[in-house]
Every structure is written in structure tokens, then in C-alpha cells.
Write a structure and sequence with these properties.
globular; 12 strands; 9 helices; 289 residues; 37% helix; single chain; disordered C terminus; eight-stranded parallel β-barrel; TIM Barrel; alpha/beta
Length: 289
């Protein structure tokens, strides 16, 4: 019998505005640290998507580590500028902003001096250190733009970004369909496997594991419109996850925060289904269902 992966399950963020006003948190949970501690009592994984918009301060990630128990894991999204997203100048550290440019202007990675890009990577790794030191760091998610089509230049960009992420484990999210059309799908997966990077599977695509942990993302929306998963859909997804988990060591499952606590509710339902199949996600999630 194949061994079954440790399945960590959580959501993409614990503090977005819709969630804070949804009633999912008890009224007694008032501070940022208390909210994170409460979330960590229900799930043992979260994606820190705030890192996509700005590199968090070291003091911030120290607080994340202090507010969560042993066994809790943060998957951290890399700063969007580093994966090719146009980014508001005001999101950069003040000392790395070009002089005389309006803070609302959006810059691309190639418009910054290479030494500034290197410094951004250095500061990202500094921000990750407290989580890594506390045993809380999972993967660094490299979410590439949806318009990044497959090609030699794009491949070099992806591989360079994976390399700069080292020694932290990288998970790569590629959304342009050209990466997975026809025979290119297998070549893309082999590329990630050869560079020991996890492929970020979407709930709407075939599931595959190129490195550990395997990572599956439930988008929770279609065409930008939030959706709620039906019981049948979640049952089907739970079966697919169980199949992928066979023979793996660890899998991360993230439900995107889409509206007013729905991701948390869907995550708890999915955890219950996995537990009912004999694939218990973990102690914290089992307390939540």
C-alpha cells in the first residue's frame, strides 16, 4: 500500500477585509496577533499573500512566527515585481525608489537597476528568516503574470527566479495556457521537476506533483466572480487530492479567499471530506470540522 502524504490545508490570507467583517472571527478576537492565533487553531497552513504587494518587514514575520504554534506553516507569495508584475513604485522600500518619480507610477522589473533587484531578493530572504528559523516556512510561491507566454526568454526568467529563491523551496504558478498546450505540458512539468520546484496545480486543471510539497490551489472564482463549491464538487476534489497524495510526503492545499469567509468554510468542509476518507489533514483542521 502506498503511503499517504501529510496534507496541510488552509486559505490564501487570514486578514483580508471581507473576512474580517464576515463574522468568521469571534468578537473576542480583536488584535492582529489574536486573529492569526485563532486562524492557526483551525488550520495549519496559510498563504501570506501580502508578500505579493510588498516585502514584509522582519518585525512582521517575527510576529507571525510568535503568534502561531509549532507545526503551523506559511506559504509566502514572492513580491510581485520579482515575478514580472508591474508594481507601484510606492510598494518598494523607500531607499530603492528612483528619485523624482511619482509613487503611483508602475514599474517593471527590467526598469530597475540590477543591484536594486538583487537588494529586493536580499530583503525578501531576510523577511523569510524568522519563519524559517521557527520551522514555519513552507514554500515561496512564484506567481508569474497571466500574460507570460512560453518561450525561451520566459523559460530563462522562470528558472532564474527559481534560482534566486534558493535555498528556500519554490512553487511556480504559470497561468498562460501556452505552458500546458499539447506536448508542452509534459516539458513544462519536467522543467519544474528537474529544478526541484513545485508546480502550483489549479482545481480546474490536471493535478501533478513535480516536487514536494505538492501544491493545489482552489481558486474559488470563475471569471472574477466568487463561487461556492457544491458538496459534489468538493467530494470530487477530495478524491483527486487523495489520489495525488498517495506516495507523496507532503501536500499543501489552499482555498483562495474569495468573499466573506467562504474560503474558510469551504476549507473546513473539504477537511471533513478528507477525514471521512481516512485522509486526515491534520490535528488542527480536524478540530475545525
Amino acid at each position: 500500500m502506498n503511503s499517504m502524504a501529510v496534507i496541510r490545508l488552509g486559505t490564501s490570507s487570514w486578514a483580508n477585509r471581507d473576512l474580517l467583517t464576515s463574522g468568521w472571527y469571534p468578537r473576542s478576537v480583536r488584535t492582529a496577533a489574536d486573529r492569526l492565533a485563532y486562524y492557526a487553531s483551525r488550520f495549519d497552513l496559510v498563504e501570506a499573500d501580502t508578500g505579493f504587494y510588498a516585502i514584509p518587514a522582519v518585525e512582521t514575520t517575527e510576529g507571525w512566527a510568535a503568534a502561531t504554534p509549532d507545526g503551523f506553516t506559511f506559504d509566502v507569495k514572492a513580491f510581485g515585481l520579482l515575478t514580472g508584475h508591474p508594481t507601484r513604485l510606492a510598494a518598494l522600500p523607500a531607499d530603492l525608489r528612483p528619485d523624482g518619480v511619482d509613487g503611483n507610477v508602475k514599474l517593471r522589473r527590467g526598469e530597475l537597476p540590477e543591484e536594486a533587484v538583487e537588494e529586493l531578493w536580499h530583503r525578501l530572504h531576510q523577511a523569510l528568516d524568522p519563519l524559517d528559523d521557527a520551522g514555519r516556512l513552507g514554500v515561496v510561491t512564484l506567481a508569474f503574470p497571466a500574460w507570460l507566454a512560453h518561450g525561451e526568454r520566459a523559460v530563462r526568467r522562470v528558472l532564474d527566479t527559481i534560482e534566486r529563491c534558493a535555498p528556500r523551496r519554490a512553487a511556480v504558478e504559470l497561468r498562460h495556457p501556452s505552458w500546458f498546450e499539447g506536448g508542452q505540458a509534459l516539458r513544462t512539468l519536467r522543467m519544474l521537476q528537474e529544478h526541484d520546484a513545485s508546480y502550483v496545480c489549479l482545481d480546474s486543471t490536471p493535478l501533478a506533483a513535480t516536487a514536494e510539497p505538492a501544491l493545489v490551489r482552489f481558486h474559488g472564482h470563475e471569471g472574477g466572480v466568487p463561487v461556492t463549491y457544491s458538496d459534489r464538487e468538493l467530494e470530487d476534489h477530495a478524491l483527486r487530492l487523495r489520489h495525488l497524495a498517495a506516495g507523496l510526503g507532503e501536500m499543501h492545499v489552499l482555498v483562495d479567499t474569495c468573499c466573506a469567509g467562504q474560503a474558510q468554510r469551504d476549507g473546513e468542509r473539504l477537511a471533513a471530506l478528507l477525514a471521512g476518507m481516512g485522509t486526515a489533514p491534520n490535528r488542527a483542521k480536524l478540530r475545525a470540522v
